[in-house]
């Protein structure tokens, strides 16, 4: 994976509020640095990923969300339909949670924007 990162786990979780919440809770408790949640960002009846994510976030990164949207709109007029949220679970030493729509293009756009900034994000979070 990019940036010298490794994937610690790859979990498939069905859409829905309770399932996504439990999966995020487990990863945050485990101290995972970066949690990427793919899917569930639309407006369908089981798409609650952004709402669940917001419950875990102490510092939302609206600017990064906007950068992802701008990048997505370069390739698809549908990018604005995603409601992905990005933020830190704790100011200082928490997990970074990244939501992405489930299309390959959306995942590439999201990671293309966020991964190069991981060092800066965690330095800023630690006050450096």
From TrEMBL:
This is MoaB/Mog domain-containing protein. InterPro entries: MoaB/Mog-like_dom_sf, MoaB/Mog_dom, MPT_Adenylyltrnsfr/MoaC-Rel. One of its GO terms (biological process) is Mo-molybdopterin cofactor biosynthetic process. Residues 3-118 form the MoaB/Mog domain. Pathway: Cofactor biosynthesis; molybdopterin biosynthesis. Keywords: Molybdenum cofactor biosynthesis. SUPFAM superfamilies: Molybdenum cofactor biosynthesis proteins. It comes from Corynebacterium striatum. It comes from the Bacteria. Gene3D superfamilies: MoaB/Mog-like domain. Pfam families: MoCF_biosynth. Transmembrane segments: none annotated.
């Amino acid at each position: 994976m990019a940036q010298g990162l490794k994937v610690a786990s790859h979990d498939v979780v069905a859409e829905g509020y309770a399932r996504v919440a439990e999966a995020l809770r487990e990863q945050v408790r485990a101290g995972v640095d970066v949690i990427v949640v793919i899917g569930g960002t639309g407006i369908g009846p089981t798409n609650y990923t952004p709402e669940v994510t917001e419950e875990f976030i102490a510092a939302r990164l609206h600017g990064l969300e906007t950068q992802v949207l701008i990048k997505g709109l370069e390739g698809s007029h549908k990018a604005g339909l995603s409601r992905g949220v990005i933020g830190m679970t704790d100011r200082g030493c928490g997990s970074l949670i990244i939501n992405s729509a489930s299309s390959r293009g959306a995942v590439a756009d999201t990671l293309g924007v966020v991964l190069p900034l991981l060092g800066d994000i965690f330095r800023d979070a630690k006050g450096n």
